[in-house]
Amino acid sequence: MSQNAVKRLYLMQVGSMPEYQIPIVCYLVQTDDGKNILIDSGLPRIIPEDQREFVNGQMVFEQLITIGLQPDDIDMVISTHYDFDHSGNHGAFTKAKYLVQRVHHEHAPGNARFAATCPQWDQPMERIRLVDGDTELLPGLELIETSGHVPGHQSVLVRLPKTGAVLLTIDAVAFREGFVRDLADDGSNADAEAIRASTNKLLDLVEREKVGLVIFGHDPEQWEGLKKLPEYYE
Ligand SMILES: [Zn+2]
Fold it and tell me: What does the pLDDT read at residue 3?
């Protein structure tokens, strides 16, 4: 018998970049003892002026309602990073603490990239739990520090009773074709070295932990074939 506390993993598409059919997604983890843990919160209700290539779909609140959950039923929000398509509604889950890498939280105020959703993530400190590096939150749920996309980005490892280990790479690896060892530097990102290191770290983890399902952050082709809420992985 598995001793994992995690029972279910839901995937939901909450928005997109229609031009490339890129999905914007959130995840929900449910535990045996009835906890609801949201991973990211999607695009903000009002899309910033300079980000009009993104559109909201069925927002996270609406999707949660279809499985009987209100915002106050969310016990914890895992914040992978503060890009606006991942942190757009953190403030709405008022009963939840949100968890973020300390490095990221301390970096964000000085980086204009994260300004769009600042009111969402700049919450009173009693609402935030800062974590340092790889962290087991509870049996079957681990945060994996994967800097590169941004400093202090985190991915999530979920161990399910039937499906086994599932890795949510988030934006450490946005597309399947990027999941290769010693990724070449195409010059598009100043942090190519960190991206390569994090990608290698996740490839090692997949081998070591026998991960059966790797879900990439924004991969349209893979996303098509995955189960979405109300379906779930168990
Ligand atoms: Zn993203």
Answer: 60
